[in-house]
Amino acid sequence: MECDEWRGKLDAYLDGELEPAEAAALGAHLRGCARCAAEALERVQLKRSVASAGRRYEPRPAFRAKVALRGAKPRREIGWQWGVLAMPALVVLVVSIVASLHQARDNARRQHVYSELADLHVAALASATPVDVLSSDRHTVKPWFQGKIPFAFNLPDLQGSQFALLGGRLAYFAQTPGAHLIYQLRKHEISVFIFPDSGAETTGLPSGAAHALSFNVESWTQDGLRYFVIGDANAGDIEALSQLLRASR
Known about the structure:
Elements: H1 2-7, H2 10-14, H3 20-32, H4 34-56, H5 61-67, H6 80-126, E1 133-134, H7 138-144, E2 164-173, E3 176-185, E4 188-196, E5 208-212, E6 215-222, E7 225-231, H8 235-246
Antiparallel strand pairs: 1-2, 2-3, 3-4, 4-7, 5-6, 6-7
């Protein structure tokens, strides 16, 4: 109902005929409603086309002088210029709204992916056998994945760090096989998931730190692979492990 009410005032808004307070309120509505903003843009484009056509067939001054009525007042322009001038601003407004919608969609997709991985993390830790290869030696864990996943990866040397490698297991996300490594930090277990960065679920996924289902998450793309680090450790510890993984080339 609110949109219907505002749409009835779009033409007056574009022609600059609304009271300042009402124009400000409608402008605020357009910034939050992509549908009304798109309709406003269509109307501005229509007004600009009509104004352009009117100028194209404008009579010459000599002809105007012949048909001008004595004492007739000059015609008042009815706000087409305002609509034309408003065009760039409205385009920026619509583009910003569309960008916000895309950002919201990307954030929702990222949260969905992180929630799925958080479930895999919890399921692994709750299992009687959290890992398929039990070893703290990266030279034992890494070769175990050969032939089981369609890519190779490097593991960091943890000597001198607070982290300990517990082992690894196969993981499947969106029907894609990947590596699931489990690290320990004091009393916290942290999962590291590695998948090819070619699946529909992960391609173009925003990188960076996030929070999902009470877990801290860090994600990035490197050498064609997508890394996810997730656990109940604090964000600084998640970032520290992520930095070790990034450096393991």
